[in-house]
């Protein structure tokens, strides 16, 4: 048994330490030149992209040097079908991340981080809803509808300490309504669990093809963060309205974190040009954390722009200004992403 | 002094790291220059279920077919329509085949058009012959894309084939002026999207579309039995022997199938392209074992009323010998039946 475990560890180490070489020297050229991608039946009903990105962060108040994060990732989407119907869809997005910051010189370690990795089974005559198993975004608020994986623009997940999790969810899309209910491990990126975390969450919303979208969400659970857990109970409402080139978003949530009442609201106004290559946005977050005697207020302004080129190159720039009762901070963030 | 030195060292270190990362990315970019830009989100259906429910309310399930729209398809579409796809519209794309139990009802394919208020996504429901069943606006950020616009245009476009849409598009092109209203522009985009969708589906998913046409034809004529088709091949020499000088058939386009029910041969299915003067097309014939013409259907559409009537008039009749034939349609029936019989005989 011990030998078996050791062998597994050696294999895991070998794959992780060589994955970048495999990606760069084998997968990237094959993918890029389409040598087997379009021809092979192995890639039937498959979309495969490789994602290379660099993010830079700077605290503009302290003028410290830039913190950098590098990502190399695979984005695989495959639909499995029999002769006349879809059975399931697999989304598999492992990313390798390297952090270089001003406190620690890079140690050349690339850590595996999971974005989305799940299998989504289609409804059948017996089971009338989809069943999703694996790592997926917690169905709460605006995050459910808008894909913010790998973007500078983010929403309200930090207040719940978790963005995506391992577990199972049940969901269905109807003409006028859609819903998702998830039961997850509360461990976030890491599948391994300790201190018995768990999350039960869900969202019901109106159809996403309309210009006015309304949703209601709940979140109840114990979230594992490093060596402790935090208890959360939240209820939220989200609204989206599109008018010509403008998108208006509002999310209001309330509940308690570790027994302390907390509420948060987010308002975003954004503009896309005609071909939607440029996206400019302004966000305003307002967090209120209450205790028996005091209340802590924090406001955050975010202004950002994203550009998406014809060759799938994305550039992003975002400035965040946080105003709270202890200390104000501002961060400048940049992003360069190339997908192919 | 030390603090300044350390700060400088940090800056140099991070500049080098950033520079190295940029150089690496640049190198990969250069190495991989001949890349097709695979548009990820363009022309995708985020919620196919909503479109399916709207466009095919009797659907029980669907099947996803992902294929690559490449340069060849782009060129073919340019020839077909006189305008073509934007480079953004190339890459891996999805066609949904929609089923009601075992029967294919049609297809759904989404295409995106640019408007002054952002991208507009139309999800098109197509019939088996690729005529328009109905469209559904998956995304449009303008109040102009309202129920009235959808209802009016769905009434206009329902059942329309590619040539009818091209005709409407030509009129719309001629009417284009600087004073076009946003609604006119939207209607023009809608027609463009319909034409592109049908043409793309034909060029990229043609094989699947033809297979489903065969299945639908057989199901119509043999509704209560399970049929199986098996291709029967002819050698080039045999093809040459059967070829006739004055034929409207394009001989190397003839594909023949033997139709079975529980291993018992019951019919012949023949697909071929034809050309007469400026008219051309592709059709499928179904003959039973006693040489009776059960059906003749165009692949996609008849592009001439007279030709359509002549071919339809052969249905229900038995194939004559070539001496007894009165018109080109009867001659074609005779020729194709000979192809089928010969191919089946050779493949026994």
Q: Would you kindly provide a written description of the structure presented here, covering whatever features stand out?
A:
The complex is a heterodimer of chains A (340) and B (348). Chain A has 340 residues and is mainly β. Chain A has one helix at residues 2-33; strands spanning 46-59, 67-81, 86-100, 111-121, 130-137, 164-173, 177-184, 198-206, 212-225, 228-243, 246-257, 260-272, 278-290, 295-308, 313-324, 329-339. Chain A folds into two domains: 1-43, no CATH class; 45-339, Porin, CATH 2.40.160. Chain A has a 16-stranded antiparallel β-barrel with strand order 1-2-3-4-5-6-7-8-9-10-11-12-13-14-15-16. In chain A, strand 13 (278-290) and strand 14 (295-308) form a beta hairpin. Chain A is globular and about 60 Å long. Helix content of chain B is 42%, strand content 26%. The model of chain B is unreliable at 8-44 (pLDDT under 50). By secondary structure, chain B is of the alpha+beta class. Chains A and B meet through helix 1, strand 1, strand 2 and strand 16 of A and helix 1, helix 2, strand 1, strand 2 and strand 3 of B.
Strand content of chain B: 25-35%
Low-confidence segments of chain A: none
Largest interface: A-B, 55 and 56 residues
The CATH superfamily of the largest domain in chain A bears the name Porin
Cα radius of gyration of chain B in angstroms:
26 Å
Under the CATH scheme, which architecture of the largest domain in chain A would be assigned?
Answer: Beta Barrel
Biggest sheet of chain A: strands, sense, closure? 16 strands, antiparallel, barrel
User: What's the end-to-end separation of chain B, in Å?
Assistant: 94 Å
Q: What fraction of the residues of chain A are assigned to beta strands by DSSP? A: over 45%
Mean pLDDT of chain A: 86
Query: Which structural class matches the secondary elements of chain B?
Result: alpha+beta
Distance between the termini of chain A: 42 Å
Nearest-integer average pLDDT of chain B: 80
CATH topology of the largest domain in chain A: Porin
Over all CA atoms, what is the radius of gyration of chain A?
A: 21 Å
Number of strands of chain B: 10
């Amino acid at each position: 048994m011990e030998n078996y475990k050791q062998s597994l560890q050696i294999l895991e180490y070998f794959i992780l330490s060589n994955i970048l070489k495999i990606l760069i020297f084998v997968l990237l050229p094959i993918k890029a030149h389409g040598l087997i991608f379009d021809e092979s039946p192995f890639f039937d009903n498959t979309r495969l992209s490789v994602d290379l990105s660099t993010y830079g962060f700077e605290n503009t108040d302290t003028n410290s040097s830039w913190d950098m994060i590098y990502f190399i990732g695979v984005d695989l989407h495959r639909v499995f079908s029999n002769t006349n119907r879809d059975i399931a869809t697999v989304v598999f997005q492992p990313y390798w991340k390297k952090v270089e910051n001003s406190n620690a010189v890079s140690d050349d370690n690339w850590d595996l981080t999971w974005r989305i990795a799940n299998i989504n089974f289609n409804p059948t005559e017996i089971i009338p809803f989809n069943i999703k198993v694996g790592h997926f975004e917690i169905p709460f608020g605006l995050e459910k509808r808008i894909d913010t994986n790998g973007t500078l623009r983010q929403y309200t997940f930090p207040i719940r300490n978790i963005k995506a999790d391992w577990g199972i969810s049940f969901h269905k899309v109807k003409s006028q309504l859609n819903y998702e209910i998830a039961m997850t491990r509360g461990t976030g990126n890491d599948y391994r669990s300790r201190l018995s975390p768990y999350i039960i969450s869900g969202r019901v919303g109106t159809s996403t093809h309309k210009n006015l979208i309304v949703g209601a969400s709940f979140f109840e659970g114990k979230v594992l963060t490093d060596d402790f857990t935090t208890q959360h109970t939240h209820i939220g409402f989200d609204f989206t309205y599109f008018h010509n080139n403008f998108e208006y978003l509002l999310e209001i949530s309330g509940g308690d974190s570790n027994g302390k009442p907390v509420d948060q609201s987010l308002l975003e106004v954004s503009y896309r040009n005609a071909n939607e290559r440029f996206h400019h946005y302004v966000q305003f977050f307002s967090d209120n954390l209450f205790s028996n005697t005091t209340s802590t207020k924090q406001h955050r302004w975010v202004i950002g722009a994203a550009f998406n080129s014809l060759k799938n190159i994305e550039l992003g720039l975002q400035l965040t200004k946080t105003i709270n009762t202890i200390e104000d901070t501002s961060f400048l963030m940049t992003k360069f992403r190339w997908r192919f | 002094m030390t603090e300044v030195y350390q700060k400088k060292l940090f800056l140099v270190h991070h500049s080098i790291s950033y520079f190295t990362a940029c150089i690496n990315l640049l190198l990969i970019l250069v190495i991989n220059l001949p890349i097709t830009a695979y548009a990820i989100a363009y022309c995708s259906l985020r919620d196919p279920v909503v479109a399916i429910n709207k466009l095919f309310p009797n659907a029980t399930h669907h099947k996803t077919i992902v294929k690559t729209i490449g340069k060849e398809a782009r060129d073919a579409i340019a020839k077909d329509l006189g305008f073509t796809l934007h480079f953004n519209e190339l890459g891996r794309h999805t066609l949904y085949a929609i089923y009601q139990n075992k029967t294919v009802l049609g297809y759904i394919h989404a295409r995106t058009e640019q408007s002054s208020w952002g991208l507009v996504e139309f999800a098109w429901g197509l019939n088996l012959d690729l005529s328009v069943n109905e469209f559904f606006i998956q995304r449009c950020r303008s109040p102009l894309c309202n129920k009235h616009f959808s209802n009016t245009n769905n009434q206009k476009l329902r059942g329309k084939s590619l040539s009818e849409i091209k005709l409407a598009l030509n009129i719309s092109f001629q009417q284009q002026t600087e004073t076009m209203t946003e609604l006119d522009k939207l209607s023009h985009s809608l027609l463009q999207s319909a034409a592109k969708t049908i043409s793309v589906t034909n060029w990229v998913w043609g094989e699947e579309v033809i297979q489903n046409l065969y299945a639908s034809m057989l199901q119509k004529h043999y509704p209560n039995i399970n049929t199986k088709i098996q291709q029967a091949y002819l050698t080039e020499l045999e093809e040459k022997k059967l070829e006739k000088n004055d034929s409207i058939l394009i001989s190397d386009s003839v594909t023949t199938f033997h139709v079975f029910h529980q291993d018992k041969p019951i019919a012949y299915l023949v697909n071929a392209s034809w050309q007469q003067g400026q008219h051309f097309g592709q059709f499928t014939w179904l003959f039973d074992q006693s040489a009776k013409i059960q059906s003749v259907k165009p692949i996609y559409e008849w592009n001439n009323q007279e030709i359509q009537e002549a071919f339809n008039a052969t249905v229900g009749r038995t194939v004559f010998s070539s001496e007894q034939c009165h018109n080109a349609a009867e001659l074609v029936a005779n020729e194709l039946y000979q192809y089928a019989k010969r191919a089946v005989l050779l493949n026994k």
